[in-house]
Description:
Layout: E1 4-6, H1 25-32, E2 36-40, E3 43-46, H2 48-67, E4 71-72, E5 78-79, H3 81-87, E6 99-102, E7 114-117, H4 122-130, E8 141-150, E9 165-175, H5 178-198, E10 205-211, E11 218-225, E12 231-236, E13 241-244, H6 250-256, E14 264-278, H7 280-285, E15 288-290, E16 296-298, E17 300-306, H8 308-319, E18 336-341, H9 346-361, E19 366-369, H10 375-385, E20 389-394, H11 395-400, E21 403-407, E22 413-416, H12 418-423
Helix pairs in contact: 1-8, 2-5, 2-8
The chain binds one RNA strand through helix 10.
Amino acid sequence: MTHTIRQSVLFTKTRKDTPKDEVSKNAQLLIRAGYIHKEMAGVYSLLPLGLRTFNNVVQVIREEMDAIGGQEMIMTALQDPEVWKTSGRWEDTAVDIWFKTHLHSGEQYHEGAELGIANTHEEPLTRMLKDHISSYKDLPKFIYQFQTKFRNETRAKSGIMRTREFVMKDLYSFNTDEKSFREFYEKCAEAYLRIFNRIGIGEKTYRTFASGGSFSRFSDEFQTISDAGEDMIYINDTTGTALNKEVNTTEVIKDLGWEGVSLREERAIEVGNIFPLGTRFSDAIGLTYKNEEGEELPVVMGSYGIGPARAMGTVAEVLSDERGLVWPEEIAPFKYHLVVLDNGTEEVRKEAERLFREMESRSMSVLFDDRDVRVGEKFADSDLIGIPKRVIVSEKTLAAGEYELVTRATGATTYIREQELLDN
RNA sequence: CGGGGCGUAGCAUAAUGGUAGUGUACUCGGUUUGGGACCGAGCGGCCCGAGUUCGAUUCUCGGCGCCCCGACCA
Length: 424
């Protein structure tokens, strides 16, 4: 990614009007600020500002997954039905969100063999691992990807929060036994909390005890408090963890040892989910290894997902204000928004150009608003786009010999000398 | 999938059984310049199909699309 862009040539402009077909805050702001483009319901393209932000979220996740031993790869979106039939998940009655297609064959289009379009990757990955795992010496393995999933949701909603096509970071763990699996599972849970801290929603995100679906009794979700959420959770403030409403039974409360603890009910967005798969897929597909005694045993698996776009949408929901988006530094499309207020004054323009080149030569991340528009429009756009630090160059700052530095999140204004700015 | 609402210009909106007005954006000219300023000129539009009618953007039916609530969400 380039470090700098001039706003006069930036692809996408902001817009004043809220699109009538979006109600959710994340979509309204991201569209108005020029981060995303809606193709159709539940299908959004990422524009330059959006892609930069998205890539930054991806990079945070990547670093944390690598740090716990994850190895990145990428699998295909086209999938062979055979392996899905083996696990019993090919039929629409088993999984109702499949997009499926056919191979071109004979004289007719789409008359050949059926193909699946990826909605998840447990089956093909488990089958792939059979080629590479045969001994306890080959384990454990932690494999992940950022890959596009296609899900025919009955109802896409809430902007980029529930879409039909989205990139997911899905990591799969392969261990010899339950104990080593658990150790990794806990490490991954910690890594997830670090990720949500780094992207700015840590304080509002809770590890949440949840249903394990058809794979296991329980799973862990990472839920961020927000009115835009789909889930209800009950937070235990003494443990700092929560419980999903769907498993809020007296039995579960007892299992957790939470009897008599007062729980705080909140609406929340599921930004991540990790869960044990046990031997559900290794049994069905035949992924086994030989232990030191030469016994053949099924590999113990786990699955760990985060949708970077949903995470981005969650940040938009949670941190934005009435004027627009507010990005934390770690994921902002740019660190600095350099705004020149020259009013046609050659001197001021030259000074801003000079500062921009200085910042550029230091590889600083800068969006330079070099447009010839009024101050109100520049400030309104700057607020909307939500870059963390705004540097203003004007006649005032030229006279003062210092630049104005405004923090987007707080609106706090200070003055900063050039050297101090460049040394940052 | 059940229920509700809505499709008019790039975007946001208004009116209307006789082809459509406004704001914004865009183009040109001028005045302005620390919070989306002003004046003038210009470009640009009724989701698709069938029906009713002399005539449909408007009414009826069907389709498609979009939003919301619910169900669903490996």
